[in-house]
Amino acid sequence: MRRLLAPALLLFPLAAFAAGSGSDSPPTPTETTTTCTDGMVFDADLGKCVEPEVESLNDDQRYRAVRELAYAGRLDDALRVLASMGDQQDDRVLTYYGYVHRARGDFELGDSYYLQAIDANPDNLLARSYMGQGLVIRGRVDEAYAQLTQIRARGGAGTWPEQALVQAILTGHDTSY
Asked: Which burial class, exposed, middle or buried, applies to 49 when counting CB atoms under 10 A from its CB (0-12, 13-18, 19+)?
């Protein structure tokens, strides 16, 4: 199937826009990953590492920390920060729970979080892409292609989620951010 899909998929450029960041690169290391330990997050206003639950941090700051920690391979720390998020049913929180569990090798648990994220927001292209990438790794390319079709049908043509999933389908490898 991959050989049949490759020509059609290659028609689209494969820019590597980092998920959820609006950037074309992995997250830039900050003090959260260079200085802080044990799931703590750097609070620039306070100039120090703080517990992720502190009120001085908002969920956007926590979300950026989760992304950075996950990319750095500090998955337990990313889970700690995710657990401090205010709305545990927010689709982006569920998406990153899925990402972290998939990165830990628990594809089934990761999929369950992705499906919850998609149920909460059917237009969550990132959850669809990450789930599709996990499906590719497990050899379930037809199911991954179904997610790619959904991404495109929901206005995601040319986005990082689409292009990352195309790359995974073509190479058999997922992205690390």
From this structure: middle
